[in-house]
């Protein structure tokens, strides 16, 4: 009887211990559910890397001297807008004009059209950027992405027979660069890349209306006719 009583007490103790362990496990699960928050989708409002500024206006310091065409200068402006914490879109445009170096060359060499040669036109461009490094606050840091642009320019002589030379410059490629914050709202950017270009010129005779079309390239290296090389710098103001 004594041994049977001891065995009954032992089994009751084991059952109570198991029941207590189960109760503690259930309480721990409920506590974890309350304490640990559910993971949330990281959006522009809840980024894992914050954006210092969401907008930027940029200017090129060298394009006013020489643009895509060696005879032109470009007043170029680019706007960048962040759409998420590490993705942005860019749109831009420029005004083309005859640069100072070519005007000086014409002034010294061709006195017949001195002061009467002119160039007008403009560029439109768009791009997309990805900032992959998580250790920086965009818009600072390394970036890469595609770009596309169309540039038009017309060269003509004022008070002539109406002959014109039209340039149509289509470019697309992949860029990579780095944007550096050197003062609170001011940024410096350098980038380069490779792509495809299809640049043509169309000459129109003002008297007969006859048109001649030709490809714009490097005569010594015709293989480079459709290869676009990007290399540029920008200064920008972020807000």
Q: Secondary-structure element sequence?
A: HEEEHEEEEEE
Low-pLDDT regions: 28-48
Q: Assign an overall shape.
A: elongated
Helix proportion: 10-25%
Task: Kindly state the number of beta strands.
Answer: 9
Q: What Rg is obtained from the alpha carbons, in whole angstroms?
A: 33 Å
Largest sheet: 8 strands, antiparallel, barrel
Number of helices: 2
Mean pLDDT: 80
User: Strand portion, in percent?
Assistant: over 45%
Q: Could you characterize what this model shows?
A:
The chain has 239 residues and is α+β, with helices and mostly antiparallel strands. 18% of the residues lie in helices and 48% in strands. It is built from two helices and nine strands. It has helices at 2-35, 100-109; strands spanning 55-59, 72-82, 87-98, 117-130, 141-157, 164-183, 186-204, 211-215, 227-238. It has an eight-stranded antiparallel beta barrel with strand order 1-2-3-4-5-6-7-9. It is elongated. The chain starts with a helix and ends with a strand. Mean pLDDT is 80; it is low at 28-48.
């Amino acid at each position: 009887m004594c041994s049977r009583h001891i065995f009954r007490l032992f089994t009751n103790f084991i059952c109570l211990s198991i029941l207590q362990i189960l109760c503690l496990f259930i309480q721990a699960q409920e506590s974890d559910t309350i304490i640990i928050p559910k993971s949330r989708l990281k959006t522009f409002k809840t980024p894992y890397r914050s954006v210092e500024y969401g907008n930027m206006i940029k200017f090129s310091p060298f394009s006013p001297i020489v643009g895509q065409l060696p005879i032109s200068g470009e007043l170029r402006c680019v706007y960048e807008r962040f759409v998420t914490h590490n993705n942005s879109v860019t749109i831009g445009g420029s005004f083309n004009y005859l640069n100072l170096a070519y005007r000086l060359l014409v002034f010294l060499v061709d006195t017949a059209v001195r002061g009467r040669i002119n160039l007008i036109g403009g560029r439109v461009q768009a791009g997309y950027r990805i900032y992959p490094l998580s250790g920086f606050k965009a818009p600072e840091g390394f970036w890469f992405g595609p770009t596309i642009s169309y540039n038009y320019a017309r060269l003509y002589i004022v008070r002539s027979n109406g002959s014109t030379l039209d340039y149509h410059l289509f470019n697309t490629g992949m860029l990579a660069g780095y944007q550096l914050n050197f003062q609170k709202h001011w940024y410096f950017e350098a980038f380069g890349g490779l792509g495809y270009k299809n640049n043509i010129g169309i000459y129109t005779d003002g008297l007969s209306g006859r048109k001649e079309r030709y490809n714009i390239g490097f005569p010594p290296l015709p293989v480079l006719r459709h290869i676009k090389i990007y290399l540029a710098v920008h200064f920008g103001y972020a807000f």
